[in-house]
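WP5 quarterly update. Target: Phosphoenolpyruvate-protein phosphotransferase. Source organism: Acetivibrio mesophilus. Length: 584 aa.
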Amino acid sequence: MERKNFEGEPVSTGTGVGKVFIIKESDIEINEDIIDESEVEAQITNLEVAICRTFIEIYDLNDGFRGILSEEENRIFDFYKEILDDRTFFEEIKNLIKNERYRADMAIHTCIKKYIDEISESNNEYIKQRVFDLNDVAKRLIKNISGGISDENDIKIKEINSEQIVVIKELTPIIAASLAKKEVKGVVAEEGAGYFTHASIILRSTGIPAINGICIDEIEKFHDNPAIIDGEKGILIVNPTEREMDDFKFGSSRKPLCIKDSKNSGILFEGRPVETADGHRVGLFVNISSVKEFFAAKSLGIDGVGLVRTESLFINYKKIPDEKRQYLIYSKIAKEISGKPVVIRTADIGGDKVPGALGINDQSLSRSPRGIKRSLEHKKELITQIRAIMRAAEFGEVSISFPMVDSIKQIKEVKSIIEEVSVELTEKNGQPLKSIRIGTMIETAESVKIIEEILNEVDFISIGTNDMLHQICEQNRKCSTLEMRSYLEPVFLQTLKYCVDKAIEKNKPASVCGEMATDPMAVIVLLGIGVKDLSMGPAYIEDIGRFIRTVKLDEAKEAARRAMEGRSLQEVKDMLSEWIKSRM
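Structure tokens (predicted):
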């Protein structure tokens, strides 16, 4: 069988093996004939009936996904409801029927296309991705004008099972939710699954690997062929070689546990801490983007929550949740985790992360500040969030962390805000507020340069390998030019060890979070350089915990030494791959 490699845009991390299943949607036919005046009322009636049918359809779908999607993700359906309930919008469609004598389907198509053209000119990537939601609304309305007959997608989705990698022309939030419900191995879309789409949010939250931007016409002939999807690298390999399948099985690729199954799988840990084969304790923490992810992770025997991505909690709100709403979310996590640590990171907004509630304007995203810098420029939002976190800290071992720090001035400024909020809440409550540990992310090249000064100001650090890798390799010519996103680069591993060594010198805890903590090959090195705490998505906890129990620390130290001394990325990958296979 012909082996074929397809590359697209990484959307949702993780890997999976399954058979390719093609969903190729047929084009909607629009009747462009002009109607007689006598037909106008009938066409308006058709429009109103279609609106009612689509409303019912969306409400039924929304109810059907309760328990599958989190509260935040279910707000995605509000976008559909708001469009369908927008009287001004539908008056425009009616006017096209009355004045231009369009049929209802043509009027819908024309009106929504006008809005899509306007949105497409925006510089805000989050707003631009609403194009696919509008397209979906248009298709559903037009389908319901013709009697609500099931389209080809509806029929094909019923045939899908959990052993397939689904390839689709245009992914919509509702199809994404349906595929999540089916627990497919992965999703590949030609369009509609960009990072900011509602569809991609659903797939990331439910732990399903996904890639966007691969032409379906090129994959169509491979229907029902075996394939590997790597959502982190944005690669789909059809008819993989035996070696590639071995690499997948033995850890060169990650095979995440489906989050929806996690409630039944915590038995692996049986209340026992995770230790290496020679008895060295390793802390396993989770990164969460929603309350749903937290509850999925709770039963896995985790040591705590290493990262609450608060920006993800805001993504479907029209405006930033107020202090009360944030407090309820944070305190719920603090109470439910039963005294285990919870690190809540303030919103990491800007750059490539633009939740809809946070008021990013249409300026170029590449020029917008990100992380703590943006938060300090929007101090009112930051103070609201800090107040909510500090109030929630009364219910557990809650810490606060700040993203994308690159100066001591930033840390001192946020510490000053924390002190002011502490004094204010103490006066209000009439008793001293519980102290809160303060940490920061080490994820910029500048933060690495000043790490000693940072460690003097904070209680702990979390090393964010994703962003740090990009910046370190951007500045260092020793990094591979063929594979720009590999954290197994020797120069990057040396940088990590430097950060960990400095934390050990200062007697400050240092955890590693991000994709690196989910890769067994990288975990060997992390253990070997002295990392004692790893934080990752819930889907990876059990596989990584099981793997750690097979590793001896002295062997990991030797493997880490060889990796850092490696002459090339490929040499390191080959060495670590063989290391893992020899112990399986």
